[in-house]
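Follow-up to my earlier ticket, as requested here are the two runs.
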Amino acid sequence: MKIDLALEELHRSENDLAHELLQVSERHKVDHEIYHLGRDLARWSQRHVREIADVGKNYGLDLDPEPEDEAGLAERLREKGAELIGRRGNPALLLLRDLREIYMKASGVSVDWELLAQAAQGIKHTDLLDVTKRCHPDTLRQMRWANAKLKESATQILVT
């Protein structure tokens, strides 16, 4: 079985999604919705990281149950923000880029959850299936939020 590989990838991807949500919320903190909702959505992915680490034990994995926190985030955010703003001086375009990145990462995470759910059903591992049923709907909501914000913002940003 290769479920351990899928769990490792999902663990990494959820951590990455949480990190991206935190970065975007920090970069756009003047927009209260982006800031507060971004942080809430990041906490969902952080919870998923813990759940994946927990169920991963059943598959011989020793995944870090603690999601990447904000300790090192500030430094990376300064570097990434300077890089992005240096390339694109317009904060509105940066917001579109950031929302697109969240949507793309959440889409990848969603596919990973779906793959694990299918495998769990196939081998009748209810512990893994239960985790996918708890976590995958959150990821779908993260995707829908990013997509809705893109649709809401794109016309005004791109035509003005």
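Run two:
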Amino acid sequence: MSEVIKPLLLDKLVSDLSGHVTSARVNINGEEAAYPIFNTVISGLSVRKYVYITETQAIGKTLLGASLLDADGNLLADQPLNVIKNDKGFLIVFEFVLRLEVSSGGV
């Protein structure tokens, strides 16, 4: 049986998924703060978006959650947290793995 989904389509879908995420919002002690996407890693069908809280930000405060947003500010993904920030940097990772299924058959 021939390959139905071509690698080019998979590359385009992964790139499109990654391109929708433009920023992050982190809930710190009940207040939301905007953060940029620190890094993006695409590997195969996996997209990882990283949000970094620096050593000097939010020390002693509780990180209650993080969200990923699109360019219009729409919520795309949400991750609950319950971490008290120390004086070290803190990296939040969102990972998306694209999975496609093709069913064969005709009309």
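The only thing I checked on run two: The radius of gyration is 18 Å. Let me know what else you need.
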